[in-house]
Structure prediction request, 475 residues.
Amino acid sequence: MKTPLYNALIEYSKHKKPFHMPGHKLGTFGDMKQLDFTALDVTEANGLDNLYEAEGIIKEAMQEMSRFYGAQSTTFLTNGSTAGILASLMTICKPGDKVLIARNCHHSVWHALILIGAVPIYIQPEYNEDFGLMGVIAKETISQALDLYPEVKGAIIVSPTYEGIVSDVKGIAEVLHEQDKVLIVDEAHGAHFVVNEAFPESSVLQGADLVIQSMHKTLPTLTQSALLHRGTNKINEDELIKNLRLVQTSSPSYVMMSLMDYMRGYIESHRTKIKKSYIVPLEKMRVELSKMRKLKLLELPSSMYDQSKIVIFTNGSGIDGYTLGQYLEERYDIVAEAMLPHLIILMTTLADNEQTLTYLEKALRAIDEELFLNQSIASDDRYSKLIGPILSQVDNVKKGKLSPREVYYKEARLTPIDRCLDRICAQQIMLYPPGVPIICLGERISKVHIDLIKQYRDRLKGLEIVDSQIHCKVL
Prediction:
């Protein structure tokens, strides 16, 4: 029987040690392998309720989830956080409305703008020169944007970022609420914050009006399992559900919904066990990794940073993030969440334990020792130097600038990237993960953009990931 995808996944699960999403880590969390998923795969049969008109068991399960997170109400999502982002923006915006968009948002935000016909006002995350990372959105940035554009409906920000950095959501919410604006937080990577005090406080508890979480990213549920929380009563729940029906499947998965319900109950019943088996070994591993001499662990106060993310910088080590990822997989079967020019991201979750975390620690420290002994290898940090400038060039929307919807429906043509200078970009260009656009719809392509794209292309080509030619749709 020829089943190439199935066979490849079974082989992968036998040999690889995932430090990437989804959070169940190939079903190694709790009693997940003993669950009968086929018994959960049903439809809106008599007595089994309906997600969009929940009155019975689904309503009860969502109320339990809402209590667990401290939300006013919670809705299950079975098309991922993308569905929650689309529905949230559709609820607060109408065609022509302006909304503040953090420039490090996921590309699904621009999909929402295309569907709505809304106009983005970009706000810039702070750039950390030491780390070469886009970080927090400052509440002062929000305040300044509101002074310039008092007509905006609200703002959408990312907290935590893909690398785990958390913004002052409470302060941002206060600034927006003072002017009767809405705050949406893409907390896709923070569904686990509620599990233990070692993690930052969730945006749900800090005044955000709408919070979207990918439960599958950091907790043991199936891919596309997510949550949409109302943190306040500012947003009408019926309007939210009405818009969710437009963008999410009419046959939401009972497997996903029931597993989210089950895992919420399991976590609540096993908090002490989880702390002992995961939180304590995680903290111990971070202490050991901080001792590395060439590779550097990202370390920030726990209130500002998600400690479950293991971000390792390669600047000055003689290798880049791609090479470190190759070493880990080829030598130790460890698969990273993301390999980038100057860093690597490894995700730990509740499915990890002392054994898996110790294995990761020893692998990284062994590589670090090897790099220390090979000081002759030159360091190349040109990639990280481009990450900051590339986003800082983004201008706010000016009168007459095309909206993402207008750009999307205009006639465009594919053009070699070397011939795109000063042209208007008619597509999103991004690395995936994390899915944050390097260039957005409607932005003018600069030499910095072109250089960055070509450098990524050259590095990835060496790994046989991309073809040598890059084309871009331009107006």
In short: The first strand starts at residue 17 and ends at 19. The radius of gyration is 22 Å.
